[in-house]
Amino acid sequence: MSLDRIMNEAISPWMREEGPDSDIVLSSRVRLARNLRDYQFPTMLTNEEAEQIIHVFQENFANQKVEPFGGFELLQMNRIQPLQRRVLVEKHLVSPDLVGTEYGACLLSENEQVSIMLNEEDHIRIQCLFPGLQLSEALHSANQIDDWIESQVEYAFDEQVGYITSCPTNIGTGLRASVMIHLPALVLTGQMNRIVQAINQLGLVVRGIYGEGSEVLGNIFQLSNQMTLGKPEEDIVEDLKSVVQQLIQQERTARESIMKSSSIELEDKVYRSYGVLENSRLIESAEAATCLSDVRLGIDLGYIENIPRNILTELMVLTQPGILQQYAGGPLQSDERDYRRAALIRERLRIEQNRAK
């Protein structure tokens, strides 16, 4: 694995696979927050201490293999270009907070399914990503990586409280589980506001695709737990999974309802969006996300054939500003990005149409 390959291949290998309920759940993620016992929290770390932590991981974990994820490469944020850091965020490999940290770093697995962020809000943040609804599998993998790390370092841990974290909301298990879920029918039927309020009352939170403070694009929501203390990891994951399964059923019911009551209007909406994607010469990221969401719904409902569903997931990533600029070889003005985004989408759809003939 190399940085060039990570930059040049917009789609991570694990994203090319489909998991359970992939028509609605795009991905599952589990993140574990950990801190080293003998160091101050990252907010108080000296530059020298931050470098020491990176050195520990460089010496003990970089270039090591852990199956089935392959080898791990260490990326230091202050040694790569701003555009490359943005690509890492857009691929969901690191957090926006990490790339703004002078001494932030990341150990990234060969298949890009595991990311170990260093010196973000906590010393260590282990992230595991799976396609579809696979929260239990993501937790198992995160625990595997956690055990691997703990075999070489000593965590800050209290027998009564659990893992000690920088933010009180993460103390205990340090676990944050989340899913990326596509809910266009619930949005179209005006149910999402009520659903979000109900979810919040269950101790869960709904955010945009890049987490806290990010906007919702393309009817894609991130649903995650808020409670990390007082429950075993498995129970936290099962509670979230139960709510997600209910959302999946509600989304499918809403899709059936729209097809029965407004089939022509829905088909028109899908094909109008398809026409925009197929013919636009300029398209902004928000409009592209909305149209891609409509077309993905059309594929799921059988209106559009001969275009695989994962192409839309791929295009959601490929058309992000940082990745567009990476492919262009440097910074682009907003109108230049809109032009390249439209051209990329047209070309990708044309390739699939030719394959289907």
How many DSSP helices?
A: 13
| Regions with little confidence, pLDDT below 50 for 5+ residues | none
Task: Give the SSE order as H and E letters.
Answer: HEHEEHHEEEHEEEHHEEHHHHHH
What's the Cα radius of gyration?
21 Å
Q: What's the arrangement of strands in the largest beta sheet?
A: 2-3-4-5-6-1-9-11-10
Structural class category: alpha+beta
Q: How many E strands? A: 11
Mean pLDDT: 90
Principal-axis shape = globular
Into which percent range does the helicity of residues fall?
A: 40-55%
> End-to-end span in angstroms?
36 Å
Q: Report strand %.
A: 15-25%
Task: Please outline what is shown here.
This protein is an alpha+beta fold. Helices cover about 45% and strands about 15% of the residues.
